[in-house]
Write a structure and sequence with these properties.
Helices cover 28% and strands 25% of the residues. The protein has two domains: 2-141 and 302-333, Quinone Oxidoreductase, Chain A, domain 1 (Alpha-Beta Complex); 154-280, 3-Layer(aba) Sandwich (Rossmann fold), CATH 3.40.50. It is of the alpha/beta class. It is globular, with a radius of gyration of 20 Å. The strands form three sheets. Strands 3, 4, 5, 6, 7, 14 and 15 form a seven-stranded mixed sheet that branches. The chain has a six-stranded parallel sheet with strand order 10-9-8-11-12-13, sandwiched between helices.
């Protein structure tokens, strides 16, 4: 089978295409013909060598495909079923249980930049009805992260205010989920062109954060001084102060990304005086994903896909991601 592999020390020049033996399913495992994957920031860090992995690691945490064979004892799936990977294969339900990323595909274990995989039947859910494999492959990391922050750690409901940051996969899914739930959305970006695209997806208010550096204060004004119920925080320390300013008393911040760095000052007095809850979000469980798939089907939500690349052009796909010119998800056809 054909795979993409990251050779040490990493970097796009060390992302190679090679042939490896087809994996065979063992007891409790399914063999899946992978049809598509999608790019996440986590995958980019892996291929660039920012996360130490074994030499020759197969990257990509997201995968969608068709079951081609099953091992002894498998009961969840049968050959021909369309399946979707989970980010944490061992986190089936309940609260966070992962001790690290040792089992995450494309990180501690080989991922989905491969034509075939053999993994535990518990590491997959079904693909949403009516979804292509490319559409399904956008869900396990980005969509589930937004879902858990808004509907597991918080309870976004009709009439609530949600603030999203930027136009990456998590933020666009958050906008779509919020609108499906009947919430009002304030979307931020540094690009007027991208803001118009967010408006077309249903954003109620737009803020260019380059033109309005105190966008938290602006969001507060847009809510009539009340503040937002939910912030999907992808910036980290460089944006947290504005997110706190935007929140209502008793609001919630889903801390998802650290695009502005991994440490920094936080206005703790403002945080506790507003009684704001901050939840650190690292994707979710299989049960969370099953709930999300059901909600996607009930609301007819479709992902926004910017572009699709063949597996042979995986380095070009990551270069496109690094350019930050994309809007929505970048996918791989495998």
């Amino acid at each position: 089978m054909k795979v993409a592999a990251v050779k040490k020390p990493g970097g796009l020049d060390n992302l190679v295409i090679e042939d490896r033996p087809d994996p065979q399913p063992g007891p409790g495992q399914v063999q899946v013909r992978i049809q598509a994957s999608s790019l996440n920031y986590h995958d980019f860090v892996v291929v660039m060598g920012g996360i130490p992995t074994d030499d020759g690691r197969i990257p990509m945490s997201d995968g969608a495909g068709e079951v081609t064979a099953v091992g002894d004892g498998v009961t969840r799936f049968k050959p021909g079923d369309r399946v979707l990977s989970t980010f944490f294969p061992d986190w089936l339900s309940g609260g966070p249980q992962m001790a690290g990323f040792f089992s995450v595909p494309g990180d501690g274990a080989d991922g989905f930049a491969a034509e075939q995989v053999a993994m535990s039947e518990h590491a997959f859910t079904r693909v949403p009805e009516g979804y292509s494999f490319q559409e399904a492959a956008t869900l396990p990391c980005a969509a589930l992260t937004a879902w858990r922050g808004m509907f597991v750690e918080n309870n976004v409901k009709p009439g609530d205010w949600v603030l999203t940051q930027g136009t990456g996969g998590v933020s666009i899914f958050a906008l779509q989920f919020a609108k499906a739930a009947g919430a009002r959305v304030i979307a931020t970006s540094s690009s007027d062109e991208k803001l118009e695209k967010l408006k077309a997806l249903g954003a109620d208010h737009l803020i260019n954060y380059k033109e309005t550096p105190e966008w938290g204060k602006k969001a507060l004004e847009l809510t009539g001084g009340r503040g937002v119920d939910e912030v999907v925080e992808i910036g980290g320390p460089g944006t947290m102060a504005e997110s706190i300013a935007a929140c209502r008393i008793g609001g919630h911040i889903s801390l998802i990304g650290v695009l502005t760095g991994v440490t920094g000052e936080v206005p703790t007095a403002a945080l506790f005086s507003k009684n704001i809850t901050v939840s650190g979000i690292t994707v979710g469980s299989r049960a969370h994903q099953e709930d999300m798939v059901a909600a996607i089907e009930a609301n007819g939500i479709k992902p926004v896909i910017d572009s699709d690349f063949p597996l042979d052009d995986i380095a070009k796909a990551f270069a496109h991601q690094a350019s930050q010119k994309h809007f929505g998800k970048i996918t791989l056809s495998i």
